[in-house]
Design goal:
3 helices, 71 residues, mainly alpha
């Protein structure tokens, strides 16, 4: 980290470094994944049945996202 980035919280910096590593490994982020009508319908049905838990805490959500990206 440089002085220029000193205002970034350490947790965010770690997330950014993990994301950068993921990109260098050839794994990108597909922002359109899961947005088809069938995907949305399947998600809503699974959520309604209780088989999907949506984290209320943003930090929990980000940790789960990073875990998925790094796998």
């Amino acid at each position: 980290m440089t002085d220029r980035r000193s205002k970034i919280e350490h947790v965010l910096m770690e997330m950014l470094q993990m994301l950068k590593f993921s990109f260098k490994q050839g794994r990108g982020i597909d922002f359109s994944a899961g947005t088809s009508e069938a995907d949305i319908e399947a998600y809503l049905l699974a959520r309604e049945s209780g088989s999907i838990h949506v984290a209320e805490d943003v930090h929990s959500y980000l940790r789960r996202l990073l875990t998925e990206i790094c796998e």
